[in-house]
């Protein structure tokens, strides 16, 4: 089945569905550099799954085909001024209980620390709460990724779990971090997020 086309506009970023024309650009951003800087912060304890352009294209098509009718697209590109800088995603930790986790990757380091990720994740979580009967949206990261934890805090997420010293990277232990926001908290914090998210 074809996935419904999505496009969301913020002040800084646009989130939209991935097209075939985007796939070579995403492949270059993700796999075009050996040991990319973004991967040092995005769960580096898991190796980056290798892909050629063609296997990546096949992987993306298969992801879209797995989506059930009326289920929101699970991955969108983040654009700034028509330039793709990253993606937002979601995955089911446990679908029968509607336990959903979100993720974000800003692959172009020129767009770090500019508020782009915060706005993108704000749009994305808002979209998911509007499209799915979720009680909570979660975010998993690790204790070295302070930027990601600050983004979660800006969006009203609470620290729900800290599993101590269960991630090893470059010979050092780090904590696994679980953050989350409930639907009622998200709704209550809407005006604060809108006023406070932009530099």
From TrEMBL:
* Gene3D superfamilies named in the record: 3.40.630.30
Q: Which InterPro entries match?
A: Acyl_CoA_acyltransferase, GNAT_dom
The organism's superkingdom is given as: Bacteria
- Is Transferase among this UniProt entry's keywords? yes
Key words of the record? Transferase
Residues in N-acetyltransferase domain copies: 13-184
**UniProt-listed Enzyme Commission number(s):** 2.-.-.-
Citing just one GO molecular function, the answer is: transferase activity
* Record-given protein name: GNAT family protein
UniProt organism field? Halobacillus naozhouensis
């Amino acid at each position: 089945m074809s996935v419904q086309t999505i496009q969301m506009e913020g002040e800084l970023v646009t989130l939209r569905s991935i097209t075939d024309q985007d796939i070579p650009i995403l492949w270059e951003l993700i796999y075009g550099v050996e040991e990319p800087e973004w991967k040092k912060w995005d769960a580096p304890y898991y190796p980056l799954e290798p892909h050629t352009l063609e296997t990546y294209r096949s992987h993306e098509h298969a992801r879209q085909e797995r989506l059930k009718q009326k289920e929101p697209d699970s991955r969108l590109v983040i654009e700034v001024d028509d330039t793709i800088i990253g993606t937002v995603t979601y995955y089911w930790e446990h679908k029968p209980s509607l336990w959903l986790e979100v993720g974000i990757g800003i692959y172009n380091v020129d767009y770090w620390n500019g508020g782009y990720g915060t706005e993108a994740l704000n749009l994305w979580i808002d979209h998911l709460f509007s499209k799915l009967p979720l009680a909570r949206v979660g975010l998993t990261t690790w204790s070295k990724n302070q930027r990601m934890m600050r983004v979660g805090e800006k969006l009203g997420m609470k620290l729900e779990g800290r599993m101590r010293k269960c991630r090893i990277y470059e010979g050092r232990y780090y904590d696994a971090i679980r953050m989350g926001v409930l639907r009622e908290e998200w709704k209550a914090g809407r005006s604060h997020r809108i006023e406070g998210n932009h530099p």
